[in-house]
Design brief:
Layout: H1 6-33, H2 36-58, H3 64-68, H4 76-95, H5 97-118, H6 130-148
Amino acid sequence: MPAPVWWLLCLPFIAGAFLPLQAGINGQLAKQVSSVLAAALISFVVGSLALLALVLSQREVPGFAALKGLTWWHWSGGLLGAFFITTAAFAGPRIGAMLFMTLVLAGQLAMALALDHFGWAGFRESPVTFGKVAGLVLILAGVWMIRRG
């Protein structure tokens, strides 16, 4: 497999950097509107409108046949996003950005380990190795150290 171009490596880094910012913004939004769920809804409406504008501008609207062929789990991504946004708005401001993001990272890496190992959700199979497990254990040790600090 050829090496990815530099910007392909930068995009996930930038997206990751935005997660604690998004959690903080949504936490402040929840405080302002006195509701974690309303804040999550506002966040999703704004994001959905932005995506709708992009889809329409690129003329990438899926046809009815494509939508009809989707299974239940194809639709679950939005539910997972709603869970994350709601959790971020609720837990982030209460436990702090560093601990929140370290726990998010640990959860992401644990799931990524399983997804890669089994080739689930369209990822290529990549077996679990000692190095991968050791890296995850170090992240978990980091959670413990940050929590103590």
